[in-house]
Amino acid sequence: MSHLSEIIENHKNLDDLFAIIKHYGVSAEFVTDALVQRFEQIQKDEDGEDKNTEEESAYCAEIIDSLSQYYARL
């Protein structure tokens, strides 16, 4: 599968996922907090077998920062 196809498929899958989340009325606060916790766990797990690259660690830090700012606005 090409990179472009992967991007398009991922966006479609996210749209489908968020349709389910919206249907059940899951709050933005819950989703944001769950994502922050998961990305923080990924950063902590870098000492395990699958070490994160600097790029992955920076990516996680950037997402955590953005989600934390968003959460503070809610």
UniProtKB/TrEMBL annotation:
This is Uncharacterized protein. It comes from Paenibacillus konkukensis.
